[in-house]
Design goal:
about 400 residues; alpha/beta; TIM Barrel; 2 domains; eight-stranded parallel sheet; three-stranded antiparallel sheet; 16 helices; globular
Length: about 400
Amino acid sequence: MVGLSFKVTHEDASDSRAGELTTPHGTLETPTFFPVATYGAVRGLAPWELRDARVQGVLCNTYHLHLRPGETTVASLGGLHQFLDWNGPILTDSGGFQLHSLDRYARVDESGVRFQSPIDGSRYFLSPESCIGIQEALGADLIVILDQFEPAETASAGAQGRAHACVERTLRWAARCREAQRRQDQWLFGIVQGGGFADLRQESASRTAALEFPAYAVGGLGLGESSEERLRLLTASLAPLPRTVPRYAMGIGKPEDLVEMVTRGVDLFDCVLPTRHGRHAAAYTGEGKLQLRNARFAGDPEPLDASCDCRCCRHFSRGYLHHLFKVGESLAGSMLSLHNIRYYMRLLASLRHAIATGSSSLWLERWRAGQRVPEACLTAEAAAASPA
């Protein structure tokens, strides 16, 4: 495929691995995390702030961009990279999750999904073929098939039948998506489903792998199941997949989930969590998660996290941030969002370094003991000069 490659550069005694995923818009050091730019922007943050935070790539939402402004408009304005002023890799999802979460507007059959826009009631039809066509027009580097899923949290007898039907339909749609792809400069991810049933997930993974996609995603997790169940189902989903290609856990965003999933061989993640929590005054730090609305921060002169090199931590006190939230100033949410994203970047940079240097066992021991400072192992990235 044109301009695309993936290699595992380091592995450790567990299933953890560090790698390099090369796209036409740059190489991702994996494992890595994509902040979510739903409508073409990471909420409250400019592209140059993302670059300052060492973000490698972003995720955009196919469903929402299809509704507004439309892929034709995006293409006419130079494609997603020019549209966003983002020169790094971009991932687009298929819209399958939004069609599930907005199912009151949608009707699914074998041909695809018919739905009404929740904005103005306009009628749309999304098929496996048009899903690929939209993502090709948007111009993302990493794209995914159209899928249908049953959430893992609903592991009842009735749910098993629904999950099995979703697996079968997703496999049929996967084959149609592969056939529909025309561009050779985009990674197309097959998706593993199976709800809350490990045997279905193993079957889905095995049959999806037989379609020989260049990359694979695991879907339907992080929607209410326990952390223990999530990891059990993830392990079942990954086991039949080839280790020589990128593997992506869709919508997973808690730092503890990222760490544990990396130890099981996941390379890519995305989630709204760091920015959503930031807008609601929650910050990830070496002390754990802090809620800046709490009165105890009102007179606190310390930075949000003394170990962090982000603009928020270098310029503002906890007391000031507390004040901004109390008076409803939007700068507060933007600054905590920026900090949280930088925390995620530092966390995974540190873990990549630990894998590359053979020290991931010590890193994990310290992490699981509660020493949740990303610099548990110093990295070249963390040691680099801070952004101006």
